C-alpha cells in the first residue's frame, strides 16, 4: 500500500514519538470546564489560543537519518486536515498514555501541564502545537512514497456480570483448539504429512508409527516465513486448520 509521507509528533526536547498506553483508550477524564464567560476560562483559552505554534528547536537538526528513513522538521501547516480535525479522540489517547509516560523524566512536565488544558478542541490543538515539534517521515533517498506497516490491538472494557451495556459474552479458548510451534517442525517436513501428538493444548512432532499420534497434512496450510504458530483442531485422527 502506498502512502503519502507521514507526519508524527516528537518532543522538541527529546524528539520522542508518542508511546502506547497500557490501558484501554477510553476518553481520559478532563478537568471540569469553568463556566462560560468566567475569567479563568477566558484567561486559559486566550493564553493557549494566542501562543504561536512551536518553531523547530535550534537544538534539533533540520533532519535526522536512520538506516530505513529520514526525519525532517515540518510545520503544522504541512499537516493535511490539522485545523479541521476534532482533537478530542487523540487527546484521550494522549492523556491515557501519560499514565505510563509520566513515569519518565522527559515526559513528566508535559503530562502534568496537559491536566490544566480546557476540554475543547481549540485548546487541545494549541497545546499540541506549542509542546510538540512535527517531523515528516521520508525514505532515505527523500522520496515521499513508501510502505508502512502498522499494528492495532484493541483494548476493550469488560466486566464479569452481564447487563444492558455489557451484553456480549467473551468466549473462552475452545478445548479442541491446539497450536504447533512452526519452528520445531523440521524444515524437510514443512510441506508434507507429519505425525503429531498433543501435550496439553500444544502439539509436538511425533515419531512415525506412534499409536497416540495424529496425521497433520501441512500442505493444507498457507504459510510463509512470518508464521510462527499454527492453530488447528483435531478431527478424527487428523489435524485440521482452525
Description:
- This protein has 242 residues and is an alpha+beta fold.
- The protein folds into 2 domains: 6-138, no CATH class; 177-241, no CATH class.
- It has helices at 39-50, 88-101, 105-114, 121-131; strands at 6-11, 63-65, 70-74, 132-138, 177-181, 193-199, 202-205, 214-217, 229-235, 238-241.
- The strands form 2 sheets. It has a 6-stranded mixed beta sheet, with no helix packed on it.
- The radius of gyration is 26 Å and the shape is elongated.
Shape: elongated
Low-confidence stretches: 1-49, 51-57
Number of strands: 10
What's the number of domains? 2
| Nearest-integer average pLDDT | 74
Sketch the major β-sheet: 6 strands, mixed
The string of secondary-structure elements, in order, is EHEEHHHEEEEEEE
Number of helices: 4
**From the alpha-carbon coordinates, what is the Rg to the nearest angstrom?**
26 Å
Which percent band covers the strand fraction? 15-25%
Terminal CA distance reads 28 Å
Query: Percent helix among the residues?
Result: 10-25%
Strand order of the largest sheet: 8-6-7-5-9-10
By secondary-structure content and strand pairing, the structural class works out as alpha+beta
